[in-house]
Amino acid sequence: MISEEGSSPAVQSQVATAQNCPSGAIRNRRKDDGAEESPPPVNLIQVRENGPLALRGALSIDGEAIDYRATLCRCGQSQNKPFCDGQHAAIGFQAGPTASTE
Ligand code: FES
Fold it and tell me: Taking a C-beta distance cutoff of 8 angstroms, is the pair 26, 17 a contact?
């Protein structure tokens, strides 16, 4: 997470929005000499309910670096595989039942 101390609330809000974008589609680049976003200290994966897998880390797919955030299709209907393109919502994707906790 990049500290934006001294920045206006609007800039801080825009940086937070970019850094919380699960797919990495919203990004920001600094125009000063400040540090750019860095990968989290541990790789993270989140299963989004009836949606994609959200990954955070120093990622690469087929040897190509893709920055630090990505959402990967889990419904099989994306036109931009392996990435999620939102089709899961259009088709009403429902993930299977959850595992038993017993
Ligand atoms: S999970 Fe989003 S398009 Fe497949």
Answer: yes
Q: Spell out the domain ranges in the chain.
A: 12-29+38-91
First-to-last alpha carbon distance for the chain, in angstroms, is 38
Give the separation between CA 43 and CA 61, rounded to whole angstroms: 15
Ligand 1 mean position, distance from CA 34 (Å) = 35
Q: What is the pTM of this model?
A: 0.79
Residues with CB under 6 A from ligand 1: 51-52, 73-75, 77-78, 84-88
Angle 39-44-50 (CA atoms, 0-180°, nearest 5)?
130
Cα(95) to centroid of ligand 1, in Å? 11
Q: pLDDT tens digits for the chain (102 residues)?
A: 455 566 788 888 888 888 888 888 888 887 777 778 888 999 999 999 999 999 999 999 989 998 899 999 999 999 999 999 999 999 999 998 776 777
